[in-house]
Amino acid sequence: MTNTQVTLVQLDNYGPWTVTPSPRREVDLQTMQSRMYADLSQAFGMRDGYVFFTRFDNMIAVTNGLDLEDHARIQESVRNRYPVTVSLSMGTGPSPADALVDATAALQDQGSAQDADRREALLGQPIPEAERTDDDVQIAHFDVVDATGTYTDQLDAFSSFAHIEQGYATLMRYMHDAHDSLSFFVGGDNIIAVCPDLSTADYADAIDHVSATAGVDVRVGVGRGTSAHDAGMGAKHALEDARDHESDVEVLPEP
Amino acid sequence: MTNTQVTLVQLDNYGPWTVTPSPRREVDLQTMQSRMYADLSQAFGMRDGYVFFTRFDNMIAVTNGLDLEDHARIQESVRNRYPVTVSLSMGTGPSPADALVDATAALQDQGSAQDADRREALLGQPIPEAERTDDDVQIAHFDVVDATGTYTDQLDAFSSFAHIEQGYATLMRYMHDAHDSLSFFVGGDNIIAVCPDLSTADYADAIDHVSATAGVDVRVGVGRGTSAHDAGMGAKHALEDARDHESDVEVLPEP
Amino acid sequence: MTNTQVTLVQLDNYGPWTVTPSPRREVDLQTMQSRMYADLSQAFGMRDGYVFFTRFDNMIAVTNGLDLEDHARIQESVRNRYPVTVSLSMGTGPSPADALVDATAALQDQGSAQDADRREALLGQPIPEAERTDDDVQIAHFDVVDATGTYTDQLDAFSSFAHIEQGYATLMRYMHDAHDSLSFFVGGDNIIAVCPDLSTADYADAIDHVSATAGVDVRVGVGRGTSAHDAGMGAKHALEDARDHESDVEVLPEP
Amino acid sequence: MTNTQVTLVQLDNYGPWTVTPSPRREVDLQTMQSRMYADLSQAFGMRDGYVFFTRFDNMIAVTNGLDLEDHARIQESVRNRYPVTVSLSMGTGPSPADALVDATAALQDQGSAQDADRREALLGQPIPEAERTDDDVQIAHFDVVDATGTYTDQLDAFSSFAHIEQGYATLMRYMHDAHDSLSFFVGGDNIIAVCPDLSTADYADAIDHVSATAGVDVRVGVGRGTSAHDAGMGAKHALEDARDHESDVEVLPEP
Ligand SMILES: Nc1nc2c(ncn2[C@@H]2O[C@H](COP(=O)(O)OP(=O)(O)OP(=O)(O)O)[C@@H](O)[C@H]2O)c(=O)[nH]1
Ligand SMILES: Nc1nc2c(ncn2[C@@H]2O[C@H](COP(=O)(O)OP(=O)(O)OP(=O)(O)O)[C@@H](O)[C@H]2O)c(=O)[nH]1
Ligand SMILES: Nc1nc2c(ncn2[C@@H]2O[C@H](COP(=O)(O)OP(=O)(O)OP(=O)(O)O)[C@@H](O)[C@H]2O)c(=O)[nH]1
Ligand SMILES: Nc1nc2c(ncn2[C@@H]2O[C@H](COP(=O)(O)OP(=O)(O)OP(=O)(O)O)[C@@H](O)[C@H]2O)c(=O)[nH]1
Ligand SMILES: [Ca+2]
Ligand SMILES: [Ca+2]
Ligand SMILES: [Ca+2]
Ligand SMILES: [Ca+2]
Predict the structure, then answer these.
(1) Which of A32, B24, B215, D177 lies 20 to 30 A from C49 at CA?
(2) Which ligand is nearest to the CA of A56?
(3) What is the predicted ipTM?
(4) CATH top-level class for A137-252?
(5) In what helix (H) or strand (E) does residue C50 lie, and over which residues does it extend?
(6) Looking at chain A, which residue has its C-alpha nearest residue D76?
């Protein structure tokens, strides 16, 4: 059974900062946001975690293996290098969606995202080291079939993007509502979903739904592991298998 | 009348690179992609351009004021600092959507996005300096009304994101199909659209459409200028006016 | 005759910040400092300027071609993305050393580097566009002869570094005292000097001095141009010529 | 007794790359080098290591606590995000200088720094976890007394730098030759030395030597710990004590 540790990363009181004393240059905001995301990606990644950019002012991470001290250090490193600070809130459980519900609620209890007095909250408890297992994290790596031939080389760049975006929007809602999963666009034509213990049939369903609703053909590789990195790398290898076998769903290690 | 100069930035043969010789760590890909975007944001931004991350492997920039040499330098700087290279293709015209169609077609003519032999294409012609005017770029900065109170502080972080994402998906399709505009999510609850010469009524329409279809309330500030930065900063100030006046659409400078 | 525009970049009140409220992690300070340097290098570089890291809390740039607005934008971009701010002060003149004396004095007049009330000074006047010439900047790129064979592959890494450092210390003092030049270590075994109008004999002298005093053999390529980049790229090509001809000094374009 | 684990980071075949096919823009090289250093600083730092920029093409790290897998991951992350690769070689022992001698020799055995066939060497063995103690790392943080009042606010920026540089050059040689220590300039007026088990009298000696030889007054805080971070943070607090007590040498925890 999965036991995902999810961390919500929320920039503290960021909206007001963007317009104080007057609106800041958009290119600087974009640079600051994407660099913070890149830094968090390396910082969580050094300990086998994943983080997704989501809204950039609210990012979602899978942090199995990172304890409170690791979180505190990442929080401190942001404070030491950026003009803004972050709050971090952890939730855990078999359902990634529910774990995030808990993490969010704990942070909301401390005050609003735009509360000038709520800074650098550090909330929640990691999964105790002794309770961690090889099945804690399940990650599904979805990929559009022949995106280059179907979209990139055929349509204008915005229309290509619009199709992929529509595929993503459809998939993310379905996986959330039907399967308690958190799905994130990670660039190109790729979507990574953090899932509970789903079956091959569940994934096949999701793929059919996206094809029927958005007209976009995807395949998926699924991996499991003790950390986001382990599960995610399994998913990538499974996806390569799916490409090789021209199959829709592959799971590694096989159940 | 607007005359937008759009540049398509396409990573060369990037898909194969991500899995050669075997799948690369996702956190490294994320870091590499978001840092390249951050760098391009500063590089185009130093000359008053804007760039949007879009798919990360295909980014779209508004580059009025940047000539071929500026583009070549940016291309060279990527080559000197990244393991991958980029192709750049410019298109211009009153319709941003059409300008991008031209830019994309020119690049497709040179070969596939996954053609190992097509590297560092540099295509298209910038608007001649003598033809540039103060009305060349129109930018609309859309923002969700009270996103903090309605979503961020109320729902779990993924559901908040899903609502904003749905608002974005609806708006981006409408603005593209009805108004030849290119709209991009820029983080938080903000969407920036690159538009032709639209009226206040056109923007009001789009806002109504998003409210009716996705149930998300947005307002918009619109700016015009000789560059993306000028127009975009006007849009930000107009948005502040809209917040102050609690209005839906504000335009600066007033027509 | 040269007419170098030098800009002093000074972090505002940085010392106190590093220990408030208690000493900050060294790795974060190192990251912050080196990233700011990298950013300034790109920002000045987009407009053909050079910046040297020097002390990191005080950096020295060659900014021929950048006006006050360019400086202001760079200052603003730092403010928008870093937890600290910078002051900028320009000086100009035929002697790079004297130009920096003027730039420093103007900034000192505004208050101490550790004055909490002196923030984001922006001082000095750029060379008027009409007065700029192709000879304004002279740059010498010094390089240790066969550093790999003599040091890197022979000695332990610290001893190699100590030799190169000693060569640098000797050269930088000689070039400053004898030739009003500002010399900077730029990594590896390379030193870049910003010089007034020096002759081939002057450079040969300096090389002899370093060889006699520090026992380190260097050669140099010299370039001239309207900007740091133009002169610096000339110097690099001249250095390649010196390697090819096994000569000590090469100048491009030949006088 | 100390037992320092030192890692030599060497860019593979970097010199030829900088001029292939023709000399690369200096600003891009500077950006690439300083960003790689910043990244390594975070990567080693996440596991309590320190890295020093040294020559940038050869960097020296203190890596107590990082095992081979950690090193391999850092090496992979560089490969995934930069146009160049790095070799890593570890040495250990009571003398930091000797540990580096071993690390360097092992790497030299694999081929030249400019050998096109020697890529991504990963050499040496970390200190076994069971042998690590609280005294393994001794770090001394040297700082110029009132650098702001004596230099920065008084002299021109280059002359200030030249004085500090001279202090550094003198200190680094003395600490290496007399005390088997590796000293690195870390910006501003700060020097961090990685030392064997030195006494307060040893440090006092070094300070006297720098004052007598280079005319630069420094004080030092010394810390000990199981990692570079622990020892380094102790050194920073000791330095604050030295400032408070106006003493020359402070050691934490007191022996
Ligand atoms: N984040 C991420 N993006 C990837 C990865 N692999 C590929 N991509 C992206 O996906 C885009 C398309 O590449 P592919 O999926 O290989 O190409 P395709 O044409 O769809 O071909 P097939 O997927 O093999 O049918 C690339 O430009 C990348 O942006 C990955 O591992 N992670
Ligand atoms: N890219 C970008 N994002 C912004 C900007 N201003 C705000 N944001 C984002 O928008 C989020 C929400 O902030 P606001 O829009 O100020 O907050 P709100 O609760 O919606 O309040 P109102 O918009 O004033 O009704 C922030 O966390 C930022 O992520 C901006 O200028 N550019
Ligand atoms: N900043 C900078 N550093 C360079 C440049 N070219 C080389 N280097 C550095 O110099 C180091 C040594 O390379 P080379 O100078 O090519 O090697 P060498 O063994 O001294 O050989 P020769 O100089 O050809 O005699 C490299 O590792 C780089 O760090 C450059 O253009 N700029
Ligand atoms: N790398 C690093 N640099 C520091 C640190 N603290 C200060 N600095 C640098 O040192 C410079 C001078 O600051 P201080 O040493 O506080 O100033 P000072 O005038 O010498 O005053 P005292 O040292 O208190 O006598 C700053 O601008 C920083 O560049 C630190 O912890 N690490
Ligand atoms: Ca695909
Ligand atoms: Ca809003
Ligand atoms: Ca050399
Ligand atoms: Ca000091």
Answers:
(1) A32
(2) 2
(3) 0.97
(4) alpha beta
(5) strand C50-52
(6) A46
